[in-house]
Amino acid sequence: MTSLSETPTGSTQSSGTAVDRVFNVLREGILTSRFASGQRLVEVDLTRELGVSRGSLREAFRRLSAEGLIEIVPNRGALVRRLSFRETIELFEIRTELEGLAARLAARKISDAGLRKAFEDAIAPIWSDEPRLSSAAYIDENARFHRAIIELSGNTQLDIVSRQLQLPLILSQTSQALTLDSLNQSVIEHREIAEQILAGNSRDADAAIRRHLSRAEDLIRKMPAAFFRT
């Protein structure tokens, strides 16, 4: 891990900066599977590796817990959250309904030149012909794509609810089951969804994103039980 510095005086500004940096490093580590689901985050090791105080680390833990990425367990400390199979499927079912709505709303907003430009810029990576060679790279591209649709929808409450679904955690936990074929199939599906939104076809955009998420859910249903919390 990259070493982070924290001034010994412990000023509010310095402490806040250290907390932000630790939070970002740990969050990225969780979402890219550097820290596996269920893994214990050892305070002694992390304070040494990150070069921060235990207080700053614990504040970062509290923020990660609020995002649903870790659990603070008495007598065990901080653990990367591990979803059960049922939790994962239920969250995916909710996600499908929310993102179907988001795609419809996005297609209706695409005629606004400013919104269209922002959307096109945000999803630009999906048009690259470079093969997706790792699940970590795909997770970032995937998150940006789906986030762009929700932002284009313009529905603030939909945005708030979607952030509570722990979708990055689901992707992180299930990423080990992704094959290169499934990654590249997802890219094809992302392009189809984008084309329908850019064409202003709200019904077809809804249908395309539902097909995409249905296939992803099918992959999750085929995963071994060992991937999930019992």
Automatic annotation (TrEMBL):
Pfam families: FCD, GntR
Molecular function GO labels: DNA binding; DNA-binding transcription factor activity
Classification via InterPro entries: GntR_C, TF_FadR/GntR_C, Tscrpt_reg_HTH_GntR, WH-like_DNA-bd_sf, WH_DNA-bd_sf
Keywords of the record: DNA-binding, Transcription, Transcription regulation
Coiled coil: none
Name of this protein: GntR family transcriptional regulator
Alphabetical list of PROSITE patterns matching this protein: HTH_GNTR
The HTH gntR-type domain, residue ranges: 16-83
